[in-house]
Amino acid sequence: MSRRPSIAATLQSHATNNTGNIAKCLFMNAEHQLIKEKHRALASTRCTRDICQPSRAIHTDEPRVGENRSLESVCQDADDFLRDIYDEGFFPNEKPLEARLQAVHAEILYGAIEGVARGDKIQTRLGGNWTQTYEELEFGLRRAWRNARKCITRNHAEELKLCDLRSVTSSEEMAKELLRNAVEAFNEGRIEPTAFVFPPRTIDSRGPMIWNNQILDFAGYEMEDGTILGDPANVDLTNAVIDLGWTPPQP
């Protein structure tokens, strides 16, 4: 019989220290150090003895859209983003990078106000928004897709097209632009990967929101006998849009 420890035992020995507390992850090694040196902003795994966070599509501690953030964290993220894309060859040299950093910091500071940030219970300075150029946004989206967890098609990241809809200001415009540009992205079956970007939320607001999980989907109707016609997952959404005035098509 082999005397080698099992994989489970090996993982457990790396996951705990002599005091029984959670220690560093098995993969906190030389390779991880190289990644940290290359990429300034890394999401924490927050792995525990009971939960393996990388196995989840959404981490339990992952920041949610619509939360206020401190001025320092917004500025730091902007710095990390611009320096990361500089490392990827976006800026020809450090001079335009430094000029862009100064402009972005000024824009964030201009929109900053007093408020309560995520995770805090005291008043602090909240960071304002800053506007990425079209090129910065497209570059960042492609890198985000390339680095995404659990995406089997991320090898197509450099083909991703940006549909810049940051000028849209109403729900009606959102719906029209989504449908119009979805047809273009479908491209008669030769699908072109496309990201639709709407205006960012401002401090203490929700910003643009889309109710349905997919842009195009099947409606769901509960019949008189209790059976479901269409997609059962969309019954509540279908009822909601009917209440808002939508008339379902008749056979």
How are the SSEs ordered, and which strands pair?
Blueprint: H1 7-15, H2 30-38, H3 71-87, H4 94-110, E1 113-116, E2 123-126, H5 134-146, E3 161-164, H6 171-186, E4 194-197, E5 220-222, E6 228-230, H7 235-243
Helix pairs in contact: 3-4
Report on this model:
The protein has 7 helices and 6 strands; from the N terminus they run H-H-H-H-E-E-H-E-H-E-E-E-H. The chain is globular. It has helices at 7-15, 30-38, 71-87, 94-110, 134-146, 171-186, 235-243; strands at 113-116, 123-126, 161-164, 194-197, 220-222, 228-230. Among the domains are: 7-55, no CATH class; 217-251, no CATH class. It starts with 6 loop residues before the first helix and ends in an 8-residue tail after the last helix. The strands form 3 sheets. A two-stranded antiparallel sheet has the order 1-2. The chain has a two-stranded parallel ribbon with strand order 3-4. The protein has a two-stranded antiparallel ribbon with strand order 5-6. Residues 1-23 have low confidence and may be disordered. It is mainly alpha-helical and 251 residues long.
Largest sheet: 2 strands, antiparallel
Please state the overall shape, judged from the principal axes of the Cα atoms: globular
Portion of residues within helices: 25-40%
* Largest sheet strand order: 1-2
| Unreliable segments of 5+ consecutive residues | 1-23
Rg on CA atoms, Å: 23 Å
* Overall residue-averaged pLDDT value: 82
Pfam family, one: NO_synthase
Protein name: nitric-oxide synthase (NADPH)
Keywords: Calmodulin-binding, Flavoprotein, FMN, Heme, Iron, Metal-binding, Oxidoreductase
Family: Belongs to the NOS family.
